[in-house]
Sequence to fold (151 residues):
Amino acid sequence: MKHYRNLSIGVLLAVMLAACATPYDTQKSFWTFGKGFETMQIAPDSWQISFVGNTNTDRALTRKYVMLKAAELCQKAGYPYFSFNNEQTNRDSVAQYGAAATTSDILWGSSTIDKETSTVVEVTGLKSKPSSPASRIYNTDYILQHLTTES
Fold:
């Protein structure tokens, strides 16, 4: 009986965690089911940042997370400004789960479709703000002071 109680508690915790959006501080790994951040420095002043969120993480939240991560990386490297290059955000269906039972000739069941939202961007840190930029330039300090990780 104790085994079933522990199993029930484990299942309840898993369901509760699955019902939340992927948190900001998540690093992509096997244990996070491929959700979270992955960053790679691609030049002395540039990084590729990707974030994959679960079904409850929408496009706006993934973009906000990537914007904050870019500002953190650039500030740490000493760049007061940055720009995004090659930004791509997608929301894809990745799995369908279902359960069914039959009684005589009637099939009863339900299913759910999992979706994941992903954003991939290349970020370039800038020492100064260009006078006539080719793309939008973001102020690192402003982003860090005004954007939060709350959904």
Notes: The beta strands are 36-43, 46-53, 81-103, 106-126, 137-139. The radius of gyration is 21 Å.
